[in-house]
């Protein structure tokens, strides 16, 4: 059985982490599967949105602690393995940011430590009510320093620091309030709601969404004046496209656009 499965719904790719017996932990194999699939998606312009979910009773429980413990058996006590592991995990999180398609996390059950990092790294998130989120490594003596990067870029800093230092879990109501997820839906509606959002995005001009995602993250890292200069230049290029001119004409004429892309 594949550790990561993919089902395509038109222009939407639905990826499912498929190691339910290990709570879809980000094992070496899972990280490799995610890395490879994201690399494929980068080249697939016909795929316009991605949904990421987990099989079984949980979305993702973070790193595989059994694998990490085995890494200690190396002569250096695991130093090289741990560095490589966290580098590989960071590369997967960065790959989500770099993907041209918006990625929607659809967590349920629990999303803890690097699993919470995975939710925070996705562009959007719709969770099943009852899902619990935590960066709880501190409870076993391991501060969630790398999950902190994505978490602190999603939620207010004092809330992030409280989660990191107490190891406490938050529910979906609190996750919506803090901005970690967009909304929560009944568990039986999770897949349908996530796919519906993905299909809405997939119905837009794909090229516009692609440059929009790239510009969205780029401008966040810039001073205000540089952000306006950058996004203004992006909009100039966007306005010069044939499909954008067609979209504007179609809106004025009250008809569906005839897009090439």
From TrEMBL:
CDD domains named in the record: crotonase-like
Family recorded in the similarity comment: Belongs to the enoyl-CoA hydratase/isomerase family.
Pfam families associated with the record: ECH_1 (PF00378)
GO MF, one annotated term: hydro-lyase activity
Domain of life the protein comes from: Bacteria
InterPro entries on file: ClpP/crotonase-like_dom_sf, Enoyl-CoA_hydra/iso, Enoyl-CoA_hydra_C, Mitochondrial_ECH-domain
Record protein name field: Enoyl-CoA hydratase domain-containing protein 3, mitochondrial
GO biological process: fatty acid metabolic process
Keywords, alphabetical: Fatty acid metabolism, Lipid metabolism, Lyase, Transit peptide
Organism of this sequence: Roseovarius spongiae
Gene3D superfamilies linked to this entry: 2-enoyl-CoA Hydratase, Chain A, domain 1, Lyase 2-enoyl-coa Hydratase, Chain A, domain 2
Classification via PANTHER family: ENOYL-COA HYDRATASE DOMAIN-CONTAINING PROTEIN 3, MITOCHONDRIAL (PTHR43602:SF1), PTHR43602
Main function: May play a role in fatty acid biosynthesis and insulin sensitivity.
Taxon lineage: Bacteria, Pseudomonadati, Pseudomonadota, Alphaproteobacteria, Rhodobacterales
Keyword Lyase: yes
